Amino acid sequence: MSSTIDFMEVTMSEGLKKSPSNGFENSLTPEEQQEKINEVRRLVGPLPEKLSIYCSDASISRHLRARNWSVKKATKMLKETLKWRAQYKPEEIRWEEVAREAETGKIYRTNYVDRHGRTVLVMRPSCQNSKSTKGQIRYLVYCMENAILNFSPDQEQMVWLIDFHGFNLSHISLKVTKETAHVLQDHYPERLGLAILYNPPKFFEPFWMAAKVFLEPKTYNKVKFVYSNEVNTMKIMEDLFDMNHLESAFGGKDNSGFDISKYAERMKEDDKRMPSLWTGGSHPSVAPQPALTSTASFDASKDSHSDASENDETDSSQLHGINTEIASPEHNTPAIDSGIKGLENVHLEEVTTQEDQAHG
């Protein structure tokens, strides 16, 4: 089962609809929004360094938008994400651990952005090369963290280009879709700006009708269907991308294709920049773009356990419905341990917020 197809499945819809939160968000003044951000930060309380860096105003704002600006719901969501990040340690995943999952180019970050300057991830479900659910989810998380690392200072969302070439029914799994939806919706809120489904087959529509019940409207409404033989939908590509840089697989003029050797070097360089973002440096949303040219070779022998069967070394722990590889306790610092315990001990349903007082 492909994490690429799961990545795509959690964003598909039959059309675009207005988010139900837009009206309420637009009714809030900047001062009122800042008050809610400050209240969430107060409810979360003191945190270890990495988690504190994660809780920027922009990050808290994304959680609030994802929960219709409900302080109580956004705080609960943020605390769950902080606990997940403290245990799963997504910022510590490195290329050597996920390299085997990436070999076929089933998910990769392009060396171009859209006309709005947004990072672009390409996904090819037919290029699946692993049976490990844990390995696929871990590579998915690595790709998300890498995309965020490469955001331009004025952007906090990305574009997904999903190529359906060679797609068939064997690439569909509701189980992994549900787990993937949890990761993307619960731990990366408001990171998707647009998902483009390129030449999706007709038989996929009935499956999508069943799969989208796992998703929130704000997630599955961010989608556009594009067909290479329909001029009106191809105009979407022309409006969003410089066709000279867009890959030929999506109707562009770039015929270079995916090169795992060059891509591996790009990712290794990005890995070197990642630690500085979590040691008091700048937030990922304002990280500079790296150089995108490289010619060094890829060493497939440095692969991890990610290609193992999902039945091998299965971790019995579950975080909000997601089977994950939880970091060993000895890898947690006392500060992280304290932070996790603090998050676990908070009963959000008992927290009285200014919202509750206002409605009381």
Automatic annotation (TrEMBL):
Q: Per the database record, which ranges form the CRAL-TRIO domain? A: 95-258
Q: Where is this region: Disordered?
A: 271-360
Q: Could you give a GO molecular-function term held by this entry?
A: phosphatidylinositol transfer activity
Q: Which organism is it from?
A: Hevea brasiliensis
Protein name stated in the entry: CRAL-TRIO domain-containing protein
PROSITE patterns registered for this protein in UniProt: CRAL_TRIO
Where does the record place Basic and acidic residues bias? Answer: 344-360
Q: Which Pfam families match?
A: CRAL_TRIO (PF00650)
Q: Give the domain of life.
A: Eukaryota
* InterPro entries, per database record: CRAL-TRIO_dom, CRAL-TRIO_dom_sf, CRAL/TRIO_N_dom, CRAL/TRIO_N_dom_sf, PI_Transfer_CRAL-TRIO
